[in-house]
């Protein structure tokens, strides 16, 4: 198959390298808002170069991978679907709920698949946890603990357009909690603090946050996030049940050391960032999209799935700002 790739920033270039090695993909056409960057990526990887988005669509790809800035996502997804082209889009679908709902409305019933990039659904540990829950191995779940801890903040110019820590970062935890447990979040209570760079506060954002989620079966989920985890990139999901407890993301590279006597430190080194931690998941995710394009399966993560995680993020942001519990029904 021939795929198009829109966006050649960090995540787009990482996707391009994966697409290059997928057996099902014969060629890739690359475009970017910065043509010079797209040309450089195409040249480095032996891919076709498109001078712009119009030229990319004129190349008539069998599928489209969208890895542009968020504000371009809705237009590209809708344009691809209207052209009958299956599309993979990095999260989020749009910058806000209204934009997400518009994309869903304009693409539903069209018969063209849209896959949203929540890569943890393809991570081996998260897959094993989902199976353990589904098979009842943990008994009754009573508590979940989810963390996404970045080792260092992103560039200052990124924060005002990121959507905030809950929408940009913790939304992955929200999706993972829903997907692994098969339950819905019904209420949240969230807090956030700023003790780092001033640009977070100037943008109305926080650099560290926590949220308590209540699921529809009264399971409690605790979610924490920070931009300042100096020990390294740390993503974990702990599931505690009446019969057993398990953890995703605990291995020799987990940046957490015990101070108990005789307990060795992790062999390390810690993962420097998300692209390293989830490399296998990204490969599986794009391989799944190739199957979607080939018609072998339906989208494993639809815009409607992404919307549910976005609702939780939106409720957390409202809760943080107003310092009160917020029901998900308030933001629907």
Rg estimate, integer Å: 20 Å
**Shape designation:** globular
CATH topology of the largest domain: Dihydrodipicolinate Reductase, domain 2
- CATH class placement of the largest domain: Alpha Beta
Termini separation comes to 39 Å
- Order the strands across the largest sheet as they lie in space: 12-11-7-10-9-8-13
The pLDDT mean sits at 97
Order of helices and strands: EHEHEHEHEHEHEHEHEEEEHHHE
Helical run tally? 11
CATH architecture term of the largest domain = 2-Layer Sandwich
Structural class estimated from helices and strands: alpha/beta
Number of domains: 2
What can you see in these coordinates?
Residues 2-118 form the Gfo/Idh/MocA-like oxidoreductase N-terminal domain. It comes from Saccharomonospora marina XMU15. Residues 127-246 form the GFO/IDH/MocA-like oxidoreductase domain. GO terms for molecular function: nucleotide binding; oxidoreductase activity. The chain is of the alpha/beta class. The chain has two domains: 2-112, Rossmann fold (3-Layer(aba) Sandwich), CATH 3.40.50.720; 122-274 and 308-330, Dihydrodipicolinate Reductase, domain 2 (2-Layer Sandwich). The protein contains eleven helices and 13 strands. It has helices at 10-21, 35-45, 53-58, 73-82, 97-107, 124-134, 165-181, 198-202, 274-277, 279-293, 303-322, and strands spanning 2-6, 27-31, 48-49, 63-66, 87-90, 114-117, 141-149, 185-193, 208-215, 220-226, 234-241, 245-248, 326-327. The strands form two sheets. It has a seven-stranded mixed β-sheet with strand order 12-11-7-10-9-8-13. Strand 4, helix 4 (73-82) and strand 5 (87-90) form a beta-alpha-beta unit. The longest helix is centred in the last third of the chain and has 20 residues, at 303-322. The chain is globular and about 60 Å long.
């Amino acid at each position: 198959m021939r795929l198009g790739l829109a966006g050649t920033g960090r995540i787009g270039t990482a996707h391009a390298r994966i697409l290059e090695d997928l057996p099902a993909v014969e060629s890739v056409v690359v475009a970017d808002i910065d043509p010079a960057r797209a040309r450089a990526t195409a040249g480095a990887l032996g891919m076709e170069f498109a001078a712009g988005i119009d030229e990319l669509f004129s190349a008539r790809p069998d599928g489209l991978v969208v890895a542009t800035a968020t504000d371009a996502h809705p237009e590209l997804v809708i344009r691809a679907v209207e052209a009958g082209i299956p599309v993979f889009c990095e999260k989020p679908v749009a910058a806000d709920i209204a934009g997400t709902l518009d994309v869903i409305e304009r693409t539903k019933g069209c018969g063209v698949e849209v896959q949203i990039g929540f890569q943890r659904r393809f991570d081996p540990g998260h897959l094993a946890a989902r199976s353990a829950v589904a098979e009842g191995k943990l008994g009754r779940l009573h508590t979940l603990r989810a963390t996404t801890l970045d080792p260092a903040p992103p560039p200052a110019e990124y924060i005002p357009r990121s959507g905030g820590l809950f929408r940009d970062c913790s939304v992955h935890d929200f999706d993972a909690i829903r997907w692994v447990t098969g339950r819905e979040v019904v209420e949240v209570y969230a807090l956030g603090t700023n003790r780092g760079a001033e640009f977070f506060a100037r943008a109305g954002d926080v650099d560290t946050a926590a949220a308590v989620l209540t699921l529809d079966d009264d399971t409690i989920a605790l979610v924490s996030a920070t931009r300042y985890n100096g020990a390294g990139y740390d993503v974990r999901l702990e599931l505690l049940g009446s019969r057993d407890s398990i953890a995703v993301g605990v291995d020799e590279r987990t940046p957490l050391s015990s101070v108990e006597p005789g307990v060795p430190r992790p062999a390390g080194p810690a993962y420097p960032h998300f692209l390293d931690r989830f490399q296998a998941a990204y490969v599986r995710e794009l391989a799944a999209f190739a199957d979607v394009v080939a018609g072998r399966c339906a989208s494993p993560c639809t815009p409607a799935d992404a919307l549910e995680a976005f609702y939780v993020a939106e409720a957390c942001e409202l809760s943080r700002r107003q310092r009160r519990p917020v029901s998900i029904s308030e933001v629907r």
